[in-house]
Each structure stands twice: as structure tokens, then as C-alpha cells.
Amino acid sequence: MKVSQKLIEKYNTPVPRYTSYPPANFFSPEFTPEEYVKVLEQSNSENPQNISIYIHIPFCPKICYFCGCNTHLTRDKNKMEVYVDALKKEIRMVKKLLSDDRKVSQVHWGGGTPNSLSIELVEDIMNVIHELFEFIPKPEIAMECHPAMLDKDYIDRLVALKFNRFSLGIQDFNKEVLDNVNRDPSILPEEDLVAMIRSHEGTSVNFDFIYGLPFQDEASFAKTIERAISLSPDRLVTFSYAHVPWVKKAQKILDARGLPTATKKLAMFEVGYRLLTENGYDAIGLDHFARPDDELSIAFKNKTLHRNFQGYCTRETTGQVYAFGATGISQLENAYAQNAKDTNTYVDQINAGKFTIEKGYQLNETEKIIRHVINEVMCNYYISWEEAAQMLKTSPEVIKQSIIYDESFLAGFVEEGLLSLSKDELHVSKQGRFFVRNIAASLDPNMRNATLKFSKAL
């Protein structure tokens, strides 16, 4: 599938990624820890009732220049132990405010580099979670793992803690690319890591890749994806590199090393898309691929795919997200709340028995409607105004009034073959998926006079 240069030039503009609505740069420091306590208590009477737990481990032994996450460069084991003790205290503080009858459907570890922690510290945290919470019958328990710090013993002990999904942050198989972005390659052959994980029944393997880095091109990225296909992961993600040097100063190094143009980036995505779909993977959402029998593929086909800060998920594993650790963002039905980014501030405040909320956002009813519409467009490339009205207990007219629904403006997307409209439905075409962030932004009232900075769409 080839996309015209004209469309690339037209739509390669700064727009939100919409991992939340409103996006995180709308969060306000006026949202206080006291308000967080109120929304935690309120969340017990809101849907979904399931609990999704996010654990943020900010530590990295070295900083990758492409990274846009909240990270802390250290190998200090004592600092990690102090942090883990505070994180366990925060879990206990939150659990006191949650109803005992609610169950955990998802646990996701992100970072930073979660497996930079010793396995003993991981066990400490998971033991607290298993002690305090009940789980649904088949929860998803996942960790983002750096292959440079993963071996058989670590894998075996994670499985003993009931981890069943391993996301391997490979990023690229090309050593020249990895060297130039300051990332270490896998310590073991990737084939061995996959075999070690799959030796345990019920485990799944994800691969994560980034395109748009220095020294990548269409041919080299094709080789990376071909190698990935030969290893047969259950899911695979091709993230578009988000260049935000005004936020992450280390990214300025990549400017000097030469970033590919938007046209070249799109060519990388297209070749990855073609190779993966020709080899049995379904394209899911914005940047994910999964086997046809994977629950994400099934949810996408049923138009029930969902998304949170941790990525795509099904409605069965979706819960309100309760985040623990520095910079963690809780995604509740009525509010977002972000912990302090600085690890020392986080530890000090938690040890003092205080929640460490740095900023947040409380949604009104109109924003919940907008959030639902944008989520459906971003995840399922489709929305039925009648179905949405039934789910939101309102009318199609109220929904269209809440968003920017301007058929004369949307007609441009229709003429370009990116979108189709009918009286009750909106469908994003296969080509339109490349520009789904632009389509979502066109429905977003906040984007009418936006002054905030975002990464470019492509």
C-alpha cells in the first residue's frame, strides 16, 4: 500500500498521540493529592470495575537517545531498594481506598527498564500485589524487558510470579543503528530468549521496534522485520519515533546523526506493514500487529479494541488504571492523576504517608463523550453514532455537538479516500489508518486553537 507524497506533506503536522483524552500535556498542577483521594474513592462506583495496575520502574543503566520516557540513569542497587520500598507503601495506601470485591485483570510493568531491577525486588513487589488483590481467572501480567538484561533464571522466576506476557524491546536488529542510539543489543541470541519464554505453557512474546532512527532505511528495516517474522512473536509493534527534543534533550544527539525524512519513515512503515500482513499478522490499531487467533485481533475484528497508556487491550482485560511509582499516570473513569517525576521527591512524599500527585485532570461529561469517540476512531477505525449513544446514555445529536462534527471539513478526508461517512457511521479506510491521528484531531475541540507542542503525525 503506497501513500502519495502529497498526502504525506499535507498531514505530517504536529498532532496528539491520543493515548489519553485529553492528552497528558493538558494535565494541570492544580489537581491536588486531596482530589486524588476523592477520585480513588469515587472509582469504586464507576466502570469498568476491573483494576489494571501499572508499575513504573524509572531506572536505566544507560540512556537510549531516542527515549521519550521518564528515566533515571543509575546502577545504584541501594537507590533501587529504597524506591521499591516506597512503591510497596504506595500500593498499600491506594488499596485501603479500593473496594475489596474489585479484581485485577491486568498488571503491566513499564519504564525505564523494569528488568534492571534484581529479580528479588520484582518478587517483593509482586508478592505485595498478590497478597492484597484478587485476580480474574486469566489476567494479563506483562513486563517490558530489555533483552540486554534478560536470561533464563530471570525469565523462569518471572513466570513463577505469574507473568505471562514478555515484551522484548529489541528496537532494531541492526547493530549500527543500536550503537548510534546508545542501546545495547540482546545479551543472548533472540531465538534463545523466545525459546526460554515459550518453554513455559501459556506465555506470550511481543517484539517492540522503532522506525525513524538514524541509519535506518526501507531496506534495513525490511531485514529487521523479516528476521522478526522468522522468530514468530505473538505480537509485534512498530513504533514511529517521536522526536521531541524540547522535552528530551538527549534526542538532540540524533539530529546531528541524521533523522530520516517523513517520506522515508513512511516507506519503513509500509514495508513492515506489507511483510507482516503477508506473513499472517493482522494490523491492529495504529502500530500493532498480532496473530489472527490473538485476543487483540479478535477484539479488533469485533470492533471492541481498547487502549490505555500501556497500549492496546481488550475490554475483558481493560480496567481503570492505578499507577504506582514515579511519573505513573492513573487513568480512572473520571480523572487522570500523575505522580511526581523526580524519584527522590516521590520516595520522600510516599515515606511521609502522602500521595505524590504532581498534576492531573478531572473530566466533565462532554469530555468523556469526546474521549469515547476518539478512542473508537483510534482503536477500531469506526464509530456508529447510535451504538455510541446507547453506550454513553445520550443521543447521536449530543455526541456530534460535543465533538467537532463538520461534514464539510470531513469531506476532504472522504475525497482523499481516507474516510467514508454515512448517516450513522464513520469508517477510516486502510489508507486512512496512516493518518488516523489527523482524523482524530479533526474531531477534537481542543485542537481548534491548540498552542501546545506535539510530535508530528508521521
Summarize, please.
This protein is α/β, with parallel strands linked by helices.
What does it look like?
This protein is an alpha/beta fold and 458 residues long. The chain is built from 17 helices and 19 strands. A 9-stranded mixed beta sheet has the order 9-10-8-7-6-5-4-1-13, with helices on both faces. It has a 3-stranded antiparallel beta sheet with strand order 14-15-16, with helices on one face. A hairpin with a 3-residue loop joins strand 18 (419-421) and strand 19. Helix 3 packs parallel to helix 4, helix 8 (218-231) packs parallel to helix 10 (262-278) and helix 13 packs antiparallel against helix 17. It is globular and about 60 Å long.
Number of helices: 17
The Rg value, from CA coordinates, equals: 21 Å
Mean pLDDT: 93
Shape estimate: globular
Strand order of the largest sheet: 9-10-8-7-6-5-4-1-13
Class by helix and strand content?
alpha/beta
Low-confidence stretches: none
> What is the CA-CA span between the terminal residues?
16 Å
Name the helicity range: 25-40%
Number of strands: 19
What composes the largest sheet? 9 strands, mixed
Percentage beta strand: 15-25%
